[in-house]
Amino acid sequence: MDKLVIEGGKPLKGEIEVSGSKNSALPIIAATLLTDEPCVIDNVPKLRDTMTMIKLLRSLGKNVDIGKDKLLITSNGKPNPVAEYKLVSTMRGSFCVLGPLLTKLGQAKVSLPGGCIIGVRPVDLHLKGIAALGAKITIDGGYVIAKARQLKGAHMYLGGTFGSSVLATANVMMAATLAKGETIIESAACEPEIEDLTDFLIAMGAKIKGKGSPRLCITGVKKLKGVNYKIIPDRIEAGTFLLIAAAMKNDQIAIKGASMSHLMALVDKLKEAGIEVYEDKGLIRVKSPKKFKPVSVTTYPYPGFPTDLQAQFMTLMSLVEGISIITDKVYPDRFMHIAELNRMGANIRREGTNAIVQGVDKLFGAPVMASDLRASAALVIAGLAAKGRTEIHRIYHLERGYENIDEKLKGIGAKVYREKE
Fold first, then answer.
1. Residue 11 CB: number of other CB atoms within 10 A?
2. pLDDT of residue 140
3. Given 39, 116, 190, 217, which residue is catalytic?
4. Does residue 238 surpass a pLDDT of 90?
5. Count of C-beta atoms within a 10 Å radius of residue 282
6. How does pLDDT run across 249-288, given as a tens digit for each residue?
7. What's the order of all strands across the beta sheet hosting 347-351?
8. pTM of the model
9. Pairwise CA distance, residues 34 & 36, whole Å
10. Known catalytic membership, residue 190
């Protein structure tokens, strides 16, 4: 196992390119189960999570040929309806094979999911939506077993305690594409990744209206076809790079391949802090003042401030004089990074669903432990901005969502390298 070592405080300069979206790639790869025809998916990031999904797809009876940044997915006989624990338990996103398997085969047996430990993330909305389509669902031995001779369209509400669910929306939408009749999903997730999946399904021949809105209308079809498709850029990776530039107070870093429209909640908060974010010849740049203003943030489902940038934004605020309050309304327990940032000299305390951040002048390098994917990114930002050497342990979390991040950072002048534990 490797650890990531960062020698902080080095000046950074140059272009850093954003990879394809992990959170688009996972359900889109799963959606290929809906057709027997070949699919080519372009701009797929090489990550632990995408490789896990590829392994899962192969176990379900698909052939997957991996190119430089694209996949060719073809059928290999009748799909296997059982998604095994050893794969699904490592990554929550893999649970979205439930809908495609069920609607295509009439049955599915999918292990309850795993992933990062960031609080309780139930699958109740997934099961509520699938059951509304007429499936009989039981849970036995840690597996969800769903059966339906023919799914039927239904009118349903998929809002949960903390708002809409991206994966539940994806799962139910995919199941509805081959169901009989019309399905209407109220309180559907509006994230760009759901729009991307919608575009992919429409390209396959699905009939879907309401893209990008909280009301999706899906009219079932008898068959879906193969398609060539390019995935959108990863907005969370792009946001992480913006926050690196802001934390380094550097206007010499340019983010390439990102979509500004997907980042407006973050851009708004950066502007509130006094940081200018602008587009220049297809690149996104950050211009930071010498002194920032503290900004309070509350996470919400899209188009609100993303929970997946909460930890990284907290790192930035830890370096801003004054007090900021960060509240996570999506995953209220997602604060495991606080203790590790405090090890580096930050002054943060948790009060319920709030983190109270008292800014400090400097952070200092220290050995820290990554607890989850986005906490890992927060520690990378802290390490780059800190004085001295930072060692980040358990970087397999980082590798789940950031493609070659150490090489990308080296490309803009960071002193980052791997060492064996």
1. 10
2. 93
3. 116
4. yes
5. 9
6. 888 999 999 999 999 999 999 999 999 999 999 999 999 8
7. 297-299, 323-328, 354-358, 347-351
8. 0.95
9. 7
10. no
